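Hello again, I could really use a second opinion on something today. I've been staring at a protein lately and its backbone has me curious. Please have a think about how the structure follows from the sequence. I owe you a coffee for this, so here goes:
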Amino acid sequence: MEEWKEYKLEEIGTIVGGATPSTKEQHNYNGNISWITPKDLSNHCGRYISHGERMITPEGYNSCSCKMLPKGSILFSSRAPIGYIAIAANELCTNQGFKSIIPDNRLVDGTFLYYLLINNKEMIEGLGSGTTFKEVSGNVIKNVVVKIPILEIQRRIANVLSSLDDKIELNRRINDNL
């Protein structure tokens, strides 16, 4: 059996923060750029997210330090609260309440990383600091150590977990229709 190797998150992906365009400038909002906040994930079901409650304009995007995240990026809320997790279903950006991870596909399967972060959520939450509300900084996230197997094993694990999640989601939808 292959060994699982330890990596810092920064070694298996690029950690990206988000930003918020000025809400005083109406032209920053109601555009066509998906922009996610932790609130958007608070009642979110499923692994993937494509858009949030609000969309921003190109002017809004350019007015702040927003970074466009490619499809497959892992969104991880780093404050208010810590630990909401989703996979970007399409290109999108987030507010400053996230430290998202763009997986290095040569080392880590994005879906496996999603499940790995869910499994390590409480540990990462415990690394948060702050008096008003806890937050996990980019430096803390970068240095979180995880163990991962080779890509083939990661993909197998992710496929099994995804299949189970798909069945759970199907059952939830059936129950909603009863």
Observations:
- The beta strands are 5-8, 13-17, 29-36, 48-49, 55-56, 74-78, 82-88, 93-94, 99-103, 145-148.
- The longest helix spans residues 151-176.
- The chain has one domain: 7-146.
